[in-house]
Each structure stands twice: as C-alpha cells, then as structure tokens.
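Box 3.1. Reading complex inputs
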Amino acid sequence: MVLGGQCGVSDNIEIGSDVVAAGATKIYSNLGPGRMVMGSPAVKIETHIEMYKALRRLPRLAKTVAALQKAVSKSDE
Amino acid sequence: MGHRISDIASALDAEAVGDISIEVDGAAEPASAGPEHLALAMSPKFAEGLAAGHARAAMIADGMDWQALGLEGAIIVKRPRFAMSGLTQALDAGPIIHDGIHPTAVIEAGAQIGEGAAIGPFVVIGQGVRIGGNARIAAHSSIAEGAEIGEDALILSGVRIGARVQIGDRVIIQPGAVIGGDGFSFVTPEKSQVEAARESLGKEDAAVAPQSWTRIHSLGTVVIGDDVEIGANAAIDRGTVANTEIGSGTKIDNLVHIGHNCRIGRDCLLCGQVGFAGSALLGDRVVLGGQCGVSDNIEIGSDVVAAGATKIYSNLGPAGGPCGSGWAMRCLG
C-alpha cells in the first residue's frame, strides 16, 4: 500500500493490499485491495479528475443556466 | 535593563518626541502597560487603551497626537507593522547561551569553531565541522561531521544538523529542527503500483505482484543560503545525488517537511505544516500558506501565492506569467 504525503485515515476502517492514495487524500471508509484513490473523501483517481473538471466548469455552467433561465422566463411573458 | 526611547527611535529610524529620555524595559499593550513599558498604540483602537494603562511612553503612528493621548514621550513611526521588526529586535534579550564552549560539550577532532562563538551544554560537534564567528548554539544540539555553518548563526536547543550540511550566515534554527536526514527514497525491482497508478491515472485498479521496497541511499546533502530561518521540528532531507537547496532569505515555519532534492528559491515563505514530496523546484518569493502540499517533481514559478491547505499536483507558472495566476488553486491542471 502507498499513501502519498499528507494523507489521512479515519479510525476503525480497513484498507486492502496494494491500495495507492495520491497526496493529501483523506480516507474515511473501507477500501478494497488494489484501489487507486484521490481526493477528500477518497474516490477513484479517474472519478476525482472528472469531478475536478466538472468543478472547474461550474462557473461557466452557472452562466449558461442563468442565460437559459432568462430565455425561458421571457418566453413565458 | 532599560532602553531610552530616543535610542529605540534611532534604531527604527523614527522620530522621538516629548521626554525622549524615558527608559522602558519592555513593550506592552496600552491597556495593560505599566510605567516601565513602551505601549504599542499605533492604531486609534489600541490608543484608546492608554487611558486604562499607566504607560508614560508609547509607539504611535504618524499623524496621532501624543499630547492629546496623555503621553510624556512617544516614538512616531511611519509604517507600524514594519516598525515591529526593529522594535522587537531592540527589546529581545534572546536566549542565554554563555560565551565560549561549555565543559559538557563534545567537540570532535578537526572541528573549527569561529571567534566569539558560544557553544551550550551537551552540544556535540562532529569531525571537521566549521562553525562561523559569533555563532550561538544552544543546549543538546548536534552538528554532524563535515557540516559548515556561517557567521552569526543562532541554533536553538535540540537542533540536529546532519553530515556535510552547508548553512550560510545569520541562520536562525528553532528547537528540534532536523536538517539532513536521509531522503524517503525507495524503489521496487519491478514496476510499482505507484508507477501503474500514474500511467493509467487510476483507470484500472491493478494489484501488482508482491514485492518489497529497496532503499536508495542519500549521497547528497542540504545547502542553505544566508538569512534563512527554520521553524521548530521542521525537517529538511538531504538530496539523493545532488543537494537539497534552500535559497537565501527563505523563512520556514514549524513542522514544515522538505523532501529530498527540492530546490527552493530566495525569500520564500513556507508556513506551518507545508509538505514537499521531493524534487520540487520552487522559484523566488513563493508564499505557501499553512498545510499546503506540493507533489514530487513539479515546478512552481516565482511569486506564486498559495492559500492555506492548497494542494499543488502539477506545474504552476510564475505569478502573472503565461500559464498561471498568482493564486494557485488548481490540481491536475
């Protein structure tokens, strides 16, 4: 098992063999063997990257939604 | 031991007014100041407290009316925050480390101790160590063979300095810091799970064949510039082949961990619990807030500022540069 720097592990949980956690990952629940995780709470590295990309897109998404909302409320009038 | 406020003012390049012969033996907040204190009343809010205290003299900001505040004397400063540096320096008696070498200290063969250096009790200085003039080394510190420390160093109690570590002039090292421990460097005979994770970015959960870690020894050392301060219980590991380097003027807080082969520029500020995995390259004047983390083998440009607990997993360009703003908040960018 490899835990990168600044990782945290909760009490009373089990982490299987060959797990890899990226730096600063916080593990709050059991992890099966061979899992590769990242983030807080720890999720699959791939999932974390998707989550992070989505997070970065949020401001743009909010603007798009606001524009759509405006368009919809105008069409209501 | 009293300090005349006129002397303090001249040390700060500030103006003393009123009875400039008043002597103070310390600084205090205005409301709790006695007549022996210099009240620190540089903001109107703090100056209100003067009425409740008994200070005769105070340090005040430009534009404040010392007579209206009921003071007998005052030091007027232009930039109060900066004045705190000179003021505290003037009033700080520092630790008591008696001149000369304490009889319980162990100085091994070939060690050179500079003129005016003070070596405290139970200090161990290894073979061939060179200690600069006027260095002060407090109790229980150890400096291993071949290490070099510049002039005017202040090394507080229980500091561990490893073999061949080089440190410049005017360093201040707080208690318990460890400089020059071996790097955390291990390798596997076959590809490790970390390499697999990096290659696939964790797309596949792959168990690897069981194998153990083999040690990579640390042949390099740690080279530290001038005017560096290192906090209590901080750890700076030695390099594998090249050296771990800390640039002049960089200040390192308590419990900071700097892994092997890191090269940190000048005038950086690394706050408490910052961690470097190793082999990171940092520019100049970088500020990392508390609990920041820096992945291995990445570059951070000059003037980058990272807020507390920022985790930096990939390269960051210099502030205002083509590929990064000063505020580092990205990961896997």
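In summary: Helices of chain A lie at 45-76.
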